[in-house]
Specification:
The complex is a heterodimer of chains A (113) and B (221). By secondary structure, chain A is α+β, with helices and mostly antiparallel strands. Helix content of chain A is 64%, strand content 14%. Chain A has a single domain (2-107), classed as Winged helix-like DNA-binding domain superfamily/Winged helix DNA-binding domain (Arc Repressor Mutant, subunit A, Orthogonal Bundle), CATH 1.10.10. Chain A is globular, with a radius of gyration of 15 Å. By secondary structure, chain B is mainly α. Chain B folds into 2 domains: 4-72, no CATH class; 77-220, no CATH class. In chain B, α1 packs across α2 and α5 crosses α8. The longest helix of chain B is centred in the last third of the chain and has 34 residues, at 187-220. Chain B is elongated. The termini of chain B are far apart. The chains are: A alpha+beta (113), B mainly alpha (221).
């Protein structure tokens, strides 16, 4: 049970992180993992094994769409962008996480820890 | 520079990619490793060490192949659609039609049908009265299965969509195949029929959905 809750939290946070980043601009896999690592100062780290299955799952659910195009060095990379459905999904997802953290804060004072 | 494509195929256990989708996945993962390798080299790692770090350990690759297969599988989409649209819609349609059949068989039979213009009014009104319940049920089933608003609405009015489709089909066959000369001149009656058997019940199904949403929000608050 605890394992499942933990897995759901990890999955949900990955989803939010990717969608929030792609809301700013289209990015390819490696860029997504680097940005997440930089923005969270290394707290969150997405490697091949966790990033791509999530990207493919989000694409299957029509929340993001991948398209091959050359990057700044001229190599072809698959850039992902939010679809209209993904944009719509992001706002409630943010709200859910905000209320989740607020609830956790009220319960355990995690934001002051 | 290592052949990343070859290495990814080897680690994923794909000797020959069987579809364009496999080729794309391998190309994408190879690109990722190539970028990672370049970054590690910039940080000063030697080639063998950078390759080793970029590839990670073998156990992760087996897990990755499995996760990608699952993520790329179309089955889940079908299951989701079945659960959120087809299943609630078909349950509602079957219940609606069975209920109508029962009412027509056991309900009061008009002794003077000419007074009702051929419409067995009582069973029909009872049937109409139950439509909100069916609409609420299919909306609840779709919502519970994780359907979005459009899917929920479609599953709610599914019986009406089917009835309207059948009505249009019958009218088209009458006009085009049977060459029935009475259908077109009687178009107000044709429209009335569509309204009676599809549109009005559809509105009541939607009313049911609305009531179920209200009940749900009251229960939550």
């Amino acid at each position: 049970m605890v394992k499942r809750v933990r897995a759901n939290i990890a999955r949900g946070s990955t989803e939010l992180a990717i969608l929030a980043l792609l809301a700013e601009q289209p990015l390819y896999g490696f860029e997504i993992s680097k940005r997440i690592e930089q923005r969270t100062e290394g707290v969150l780290r997405f490697e091949l094994g966790s990033l791509y299955p999530m990207l493919y799952d989000l694409e299957k659910r029509d929340l993001i769409k991948g398209r091959w195009q050359p990057n700044s060095t001229g190599r072809d990379r698959r850039y992902y962008a939010l679809t209209p459905a993904g944009k719509k999904e992001l706002a409630p997802l943010r709200r859910e996480w905000r209320s989740f953290f607020q609830a956790l804060d009220r319960l355990a004072g995690v934001s002051h820890a | 520079m290592p052949d990343w494509n070859e290495l990814v195929r080897e680690h994923l256990g794909v000797s020959e990619p069987s579809s364009a989708e496999h080729v794309e996945v391998i190309a994408e993962l190879s690109g990722h490793l190539e970028d990672l390798y370049a970054e590690l080299r910039r940080k000063g790692l030697g080639e063998p060490e950078a390759v080793k770090q970029a590839l990670g350990d073998r156990a992760n690759w087996r897990g990755l192949a499995k996760k990608i297969r699952r993520a790329k599988s179309k089955e889940e989409i079908l299951n989701h659609r079945t659960k959120t649209l087809w299943w609630p819609g078909l349950v509602s349609l079957t219940a609606s039609m069975s209920w109508l059949m029962i009412l027509q068989r056991v309900g009061p039979q008009p002794r003077m049908p000419w007074l009702h213009s051929g419409l067995p009014l009582m069973p029909y009104l009872v049937w109409l009265g139950t439509q909100p319940l069916l609409g609420a049920t299919s909306a609840y089933m779709s919502r519970r299965a994780g359907g979005d608003r459009l899917t929920e609405l479609t599953s709610t009015v599914f019986p009406s969509i089917v009835m309207l489709g059948l009505w249009c089909l019958v009218v088209a066959i009458s006009i085009l195949v049977e060459k029935n000369p009475h259908v077109l001149p009687q178009w107000p009656l044709v429209l009335f029929g569509a309204f009676v058997w599809a549109i009005f019940p559809g509105l009541l199904l939607l009313l049911g959905r609305l009531l179920s949403l209200r009940t749900h929000s009251w229960a939550k608050s």
